[in-house]
């Protein structure tokens, strides 16, 4: 961040629009969930966008969060004994979290980029990823989610239907209303203009 100067003109406008997408109420809910999921040992951030960024920046809290959604012995992210201090190690830790989140089921479009968090470029994207992760955890309902299930919306789930062979055959005899009806159909009264004139 030492080589990043102040933003002017259009760059500043774009950055301010991105910063306006950040939701302070959502931050409170996400902090409550992360603490409920990982335990009080992860601490709490200072309120606000930058406090939230500093709390998550080294990737340890995020790694603990995604690991808590898996059973013991199947943890996807290796967490070092002491938090990483070198920049590339911190970014690597964040990248491991992002890969584990995708493996858990978060779609690629909901996953933030490492610089969005590390340089606080788009903290709203970080919030989106955490909300998607929370929604998946609530939807899976496998006993690993901790906290209030109302904090996140459940994702739509497949509702598979089974039909017997006779039900499938009956369905072939029904003309759907989308196809219209052919009752009383005839060409009586239809004309397509004057008949063809043959001039010799």
Automatic annotation (TrEMBL):
Source species, domain of life: Eukaryota
Location(s), subcellular: Cytoplasm
Annotated Calponin-homology (CH) domain residues: 24-137
GO CC terms: cytoplasm
SUPFAM superfamilies with a match to the protein in the record: Calponin-homology domain, CH-domain (SSF47576)
Biased composition (Polar residues): 179-189
Keyword Membrane tagged: no
Main location: cytoplasm
Keywords of this entry: Acetylation, Cytoplasm, Muscle protein
Record-linked InterPro entries: Calponin-like, Calponin_repeat, CH_dom, CH_dom_sf, SM22_calponin
Region feature Disordered, mapped onto this chain: 179-200
Family in the record: Belongs to the calponin family.
The protein, known as: Transgelin
Organism lineage string: Eukaryota, Metazoa, Chordata, Craniata, Vertebrata
């Amino acid at each position: 961040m030492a080589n990043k100067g102040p933003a002017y003109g259009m760059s500043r406008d774009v950055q301010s629009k991105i910063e306006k997408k950040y939701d302070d109420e959502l931050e409170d809910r996400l902090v409550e969930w992360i603490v409920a999921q990982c335990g009080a040992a992860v601490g709490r951030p200072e309120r606000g966008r930058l406090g939230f960024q500093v709390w998550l920046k080294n990737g340890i809290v995020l790694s603990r969060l995604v690991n808590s959604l898996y059973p013991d012995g199947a943890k996807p992210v290796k967490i070092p004994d002491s938090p990483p201090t070198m920049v590339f190690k911190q970014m690597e830790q964040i990248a491991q979290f992002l890969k584990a989140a995708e493996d858990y089921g978060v779609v690629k479009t909901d996953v933030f980029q490492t610089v969005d968090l590390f340089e606080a470029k788009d903290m709203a994207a970080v919030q989106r990823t955490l909300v998607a992760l929370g929604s998946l955890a609530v939807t899976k309902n496998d006993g690993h989610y901790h906290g209030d299930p109302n904090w996140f919306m459940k994702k739509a789930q497949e509702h598979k239907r089974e039909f017997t062979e006779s039900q499938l055959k009956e369905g072939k005899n029904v003309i759907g209303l989308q196809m219209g009806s052919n009752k009383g159909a005839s060409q009586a009264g239809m004309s397509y203009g004057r008949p063809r004139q043959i001039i010799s």
